[in-house]
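COMPLEX REQUEST
Ligand: 2-deoxy-2-amino glucitol-6-phosphate
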Amino acid sequence: MCGIAGIVSLNDISEKLVGAIKSLEYRGYDSCGVAMIEGKGRKVAVRKNIGSVDEVRDRERLAEMRGTIGIAHTRWATHGGVTAANAHPHCSCDGAFAITHNGIISNYGHLREILKAKGHRFLSETDTEVIVHLIEEHYKTTRQVESAFVAALKELQGTFAVAMITRREPDRIYCARSESPLIIGIAADAHYIGSDFNAFIAHTKTALIMDDNEYAVVTHDSYALKRLSDGSPISRAVQEIQWDPEMSQKGGFPHYMLKEIYEQPQVVNHALDIDREAIRGLAEKILAADKIYFTGVGTTFYVVQLGQYYFSRYAGITPSIVSSDEFRFLASVDEKTLTLAASQSGETYDTLTALRFTRERGGATAAIVNVMGSSMARIVDHLILQGSGPEISVISTKAAISQMIILTRLALETGLMNGTLTQKQYDQHHRDLRKLPALIEKILNEKSGFIHTVARSQAHINHWLFLGRGHFYPIARESALKMKEVSYLHAEGMPSGFLKHGTIALIDERLNSVVFVPPKEEGDLYTLTLSSAEEIRARNGYVLAIAFADRVKKELPFTEAIVLPACALLTAPFLEMIAAQLFSYYTAVTLKRNVDRPRSLAKSVTVA
Ligand code: AGP
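STATUS: Structure written out below.
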């Protein structure tokens, strides 16, 4: 959700600190701010405002701040509107403490009333502000920063990652986490705090990953990690981050979304290179479980839905799929249950909650995750790291295809183990998967121009149906989500067979349909999908088909068609999804949307 950064160094940090929140901006971008300890008088100076990091940097002249220690924040509003007052950092009444926070404090209303009664003045509507006043209140009795910090955090209910500076101890950052991510970056001349690696990857690749219910005291040349419960020290090995700083740059593309769409051939290869043993180990666990749940939310829910279809098709098993936000209200978990989650960030609150729910009931957990060291990566029994590299655009593309490929491999492995697939079939499917990167390249190189033209010509249409059947149904839903989040146009993903049961009443010149046409060899799936397209055309509805070469003849019921190169049945949905990603991207570009940072969204949703 929000992005937290902190730096403590021997040298001036203002530029680096602004750079850190700029790199975290994809986590939340409605307002931002910086607090630094400035000058000999050891003043905690705060500058903050609404807008992007670039806007606030210019408006508040952040570059003119001077100091060697500071914290910063880029916000995605939860409590209180998007105002300068609600932007972080927040300060205590006496101005001695400044804090940034990510998460939600559920008992903040109660704490606020108590603190007000004690004379504290609140300047914002946020839940965060209670934390800093609470620390100030405890300090009055303890006269000791560390114990005041810990005592205040112990009173909080909810989730938090916090970073605090104080003029009372101007050489150190206090930070803590409980269900919201926080990591410490370690370099020779400075230490860093970040919600994720992007906060400091330009300066160091060595990191210490904090766990829940821990806090740390960080100076420029030391860090002490401790338990919030009793202050006892924790010793933990540092980790080397695999990502390169350049991977987080746009590399000449106008948007991260487009760059990441173009990285998909490479990302698919990485997913295919993941050690077979890791996949086989998980397949064994799936076969040993009595009940299997696949979970995720948003895009990752559609990822696991595709996984469900492929498990049914290639392994003869139909796992239950439950959107992770609904998991605890629907899943019936016991010791023989395995829950497999997919998550790019590994921090999504709903998906983490589904995994915790499973653990609490004695079930086994597994996850396909992109971010090493993330909460999910650390709590599951079986982890598969995607290795897709940082996905910066809020719109997930390359991470999703990687997860789909991994789930496909898992289905094939399970199918081979339980005898649904012969070795020959298994080998053929793998050869087909290996051909996928080249086919994706072909689409990117040869179809982008046409897709852009169609997108430009239809961008005035405000309502869209995305229709697919069988394993093209999750692709239709995922593509509708892409269209919604990046273009702000209304889009619904639906099984094409469902259309005639009500939604067909909407067909008119104000609603367009995108139909995901399977290869002709799919038999019924192909003919039934065409029937749905016919039904729309019969009502003068516009149909954009995404279909395969040699299958698109004049008499077919489409208004226009994006024609893709012929491919194996296994890989057809992936290619159609990529065409749809480009279509959403170019629609958003035509409409001049904020492609990488669409309104109201954030990259990792770490709140309930
Ligand atoms: C994808 O484009 C969305 N921004 C969103 O649905 C996302 O996939 C979802 O929030 C899950 O995130 P995760 O993969 O980090 O768990």
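REMARKS: The domain at 447-596 is CATH 3.40.50.10490 (Rossmann fold). The pocket of 2-deoxy-2-amino glucitol-6-phosphate is lined by residues 297-300, 343-345, 348, 351, 394-396, 485, 601, 604-605 (CB under 6 Å).
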